[in-house]
Write a structure and sequence with these properties.
It is built from seven helices and no strands. The protein has one domain. By secondary structure, the protein is mainly alpha-helical. Helix 2 runs antiparallel to helix 3.
Length: 157
């Protein structure tokens, strides 16, 4: 799949800024877009700081395009933390030199939105209301990088 936001470093910078300022159409916020934006921030932030950017960013973007962050839709804490940890680990291993290289590498590595979830969870984590609200440890394969010291938000926060 070709991603226009990976056409150049400038295109990526504009895409991230448009996401932050809620100028993207809902259809542009794809799995690849999530991965690229997370890698963009993980390039020069640790996992906890990246999560601190992604968590409110995803929530506010969802709302800006008419979405609702609820017990059954919108922001998903467990998925966001798992992906943030996996992308950060990938970047530590890949050692990209720029944010653009980080995003290109992560998007190339993580093409499937379900692969990581199925490797770490034996149950439907996507539709689990508790996992949507708070971090739920994987039951298949541990990923220590997804376990942060900061407390997970309480349901409804």
């Amino acid at each position: 799949m070709t991603h226009p936001f990976l056409a150049s470093a400038g295109a990526l910078d504009r895409f991230v800024l448009d996401w932050q300022q809620h100028r993207l159409p809902k259809a542009a916020w794809t799995h690849g877009a999530h991965v690229a934006v997370c890698a963009y921030f993980a390039f020069d932030h640790d996992e906890a700081a990246t999560l601190a950017i992604m968590r409110p960013g995803i929530r506010s973007f969802n709302e800006s395009v008419g979405g609702v962050n609820s017990a059954t839709a919108g922001y998903h804490e467990t998925i966001t933390r798992l992906w943030t940890g996996a992308i950060a680990q990938h970047l530590r291993d890949a050692r990209p030199v720029t944010k653009y290289e980080a995003a290109v590498s992560a998007v190339a590595r993580f093409t499937s939105p379900r692969e990581l979830l199925e490797r770490h969870y034996s149950w439907d984590v996507v539709n689990d209301q508790r996992a949507r609200a708070v971090w739920v440890e994987p039951d298949r394969q541990t990923q220590s990088s997804a376990s942060f010291d900061d407390a997970s938000p309480k349901p409804g926060s």
